[in-house]
Write a structure and sequence with these properties.
Blueprint: H1 11-40, H2 45-74, H3 78-94, H4 98-118, E1 135-136, E2 143-144
Antiparallel strand pairs: 1-2
Helix pairs in contact: 1-2, 1-4, 2-3, 3-4
């Protein structure tokens, strides 16, 4: 389920997307190093038989992280990206890709925050307090400056 098609994402969604991208870049660097060692050891067939399959698995891993975590987050599908990001974080920690794993786990948390910002129920907010000149979001109830076109909290268009 896409949260807000066509609406600008909130700060938590931007943070999650950035964290996933940084983790992905770190793993690309790790994969390049492993792959270069594999090609360096091509003359020593025993080492190459060990290192090159690991590099191949890492390339498949990168594609999965991109498709199931980064791309879904970029498309606004925070709910669909949340579980894969958690799995990638845990598996990255288990495979000694510590920094990437931590980044994915923080991104998982940020995706949860992005979902909470998007699904904030309107019925719990009640009537907005009177404050002349301020614009209130009909979606989440936040006060916004009069010159804003979109809500700072949830990204909904202000009426």
């Amino acid at each position: 389920m896409v949260v807000h098609p066509g609406m600008p994402p909130g700060p938590a969604a931007h943070s999650a997307k950035t964290l996933i991208l940084i983790g992905l870049i770190l793993q690309v660097v790790e994969t390049a190093v492993i792959l270069s060692f594999g090609f360096l050891f091509i003359f020593f067939s025993v080492l190459a038989l060990f290192v090159l399959p690991i590099a191949f698995i890492m390339i498949i891993w990168l594609v999965c992280v991109y498709l199931f975590s980064y791309r879904r987050t970029s498309d606004g599908n925070y709910e669909g990206a949340q579980a894969p990001t958690l799995v990638f974080g845990i598996l990255s920690l288990m495979t000694l890709s510590i920094v990437s794993g931590i980044l994915y786990l923080i991104a998982y948390s940020e995706l949860g925050t992005a979902l909470n910002q998007a699904y904030r129920p309107q019925e719990f907010w009640g009537a907005p307090p009177s404050n002349p000149g301020m614009r209130y979001c009909s979606h989440c109830g936040r006060m916004n400056a009069p010159y804003h076109s979109f809500c700072e909290a949830c990204g909904a268009r202000l009426s």
